[in-house]
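Objective 1b. Sequence-to-structure analysis of DNA-binding transcriptional regulator, MarR family.
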Amino acid sequence: MEQNQNKLADEILINLSQMKRLSFTKTKHNALLKHGERAVLFCVQCSKEEKMKSTEIAAALNVAASGITPILNRLEKKGYILRSLDVTDRRVIIISLTELGKQVLEDTIDELRTHIKEVTDYLGEKDSTELLRITNRLLQYYTSKRNNQGGSVCEAFSKN
């Protein structure tokens, strides 16, 4: 039984690795943004006021504050975010998206939607519905696992 589970796990891992390599690497904006950069932009855009403290972003993405700094540096250098001091506490850095950052994020989302639509067209309605059911179960699993470890999940990834 365990040997079967190991074989299944190996096959799933290989398939996921191959799909990652073959699918999202071809888009224009994927080349512009690393995964962590995209995650930060999503988080900031989907926050209530479209601005967040750098420590809030780090907590939402479940990374150390020191780990978010290089990502913010790259995004600022590219002109995608603005850093400003909080007027009530000058020790706090507030992150907001520039118009360029909003446009790049919108274009990235459009590319991802187009890609997913191509996949669902290929799979058809029945298999696409089954894929959605399975990915929802996986999301529940990982959310539960992260919540049990005391982390948080950025709400940006649950918004349409």
